[in-house]
Design goal:
The protein has helices spanning 7-43, 47-83. By secondary structure, it is mainly alpha-helical.
Length: 86
């Protein structure tokens, strides 16, 4: 299945790009949350670092969960195509 015009493969590539972008954003927001927590820890917790850490952690989790699941699905479909194991 290497037809570049195949709509299933095109959709799978699109979902793979979305999953990759979602993972990057989610993990980036986790890093921001960690950085905000570290800043808050060193400067005394005010509302700003605590709010940034909390919001970044929540939004990162919301982005990361479906991205990981979709990424696993795309990889499983690619593997099933390679091995013809449907």
């Amino acid at each position: 299945m290497t037809d570049p015009d195949d709509p299933v493969l095109a959709r799978r590539r699109r979902l793979s790009r979305w999953a990759t972008t979602g993972k990057r954003m989610g993990y980036g927001l986790y890093g921001l949350s960690l950085a905000a927590f570290a800043v808050g820890l060193t400067t005394g917790f005010t509302t700003a670092p605590a709010t940034v850490a909390t919001v970044a952690l929540l939004v990162g989790s919301v982005l990361l969960l479906p991205s990981i699941i979709i990424g696993y699905g795309v990889r499983a479909a690619d593997r099933a195509d390679r091995t013809d194991d449907w």
